[in-house]
Amino acid sequence: MPSPTKNARRTVPDILLAAANEANDEGNYAGAYALFDAAFQLLPALSTQISAANMLLKLGHASRALQAYDEIPVSQLSEKAAALVARKRGEAQQAVAGGKDVADPPPSFSVDEVLMRGGQQANASGDTQLARDAYL
Question: Cα(38)–Cα(101) distance, rounded to whole angstroms?
């Protein structure tokens, strides 16, 4: 999902996606998964759906990742994105076949804390609409 332009109003999914990317960069794949998934529930963008599936794979939840990749409407993707999904799906299949699959659900992560911080930052910067949305 592209970042908002200077004139575009930030949204709750923007807060979640920024935090998800940061969590991923820090190696916190459970947090990144929870945040990408929450963002996708609010704004179903294919790139966010792919990112959530990728986090499941990074967590070792290969069968869940495989299911998540299967739910992506590949016909709606660019060639490059479709190739990425096919490659990652293949990695998940290999992990499942090789017995490298974690059956437990991903560790829990508090999306609420991220929204609270995002709301506080929005409020401090004067964006009361975004703060209100984040606190809901």
Answer: 23
